[in-house]
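Take a specimen:
=====
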Amino acid sequence: MPIEHTVDHERRLVVARGRGILTDRDVFDYQRGVWSRPELAGYDELVDMSGIEGIDLPSIERVRELAQLSAAMDADAPPSRLAIVAPKDYAFALGRLYEAYRGLDDRSRKQVSVFRWVKDALAWLGTEPRAT
């Protein structure tokens, strides 16, 4: 699967990493699969796209649809943050578009920001990297 994730309950943080060619289905499956788990409500999220080789997106409209789905799933969750790490220009632009769409949706409970580097994303989330 092109998106792998881990859950750090101690830090209340979900870390997702994209690999290979990322499709819209991969991202929608990740959103529905991970964020439908009630115990993760209010957790912060780090989505690291550093490892993707490409993005297969049928249309930019899918970014808006993902933002709407994500915001709808926030319904009763406490406020949290989502940091997207996207070093490559196209992924960065899509991340910024997602950030804008998500920010315009009144249902959204996550503050979104896009970064080029993991260290900047972790600083914004207020956490430190963990040794693996």
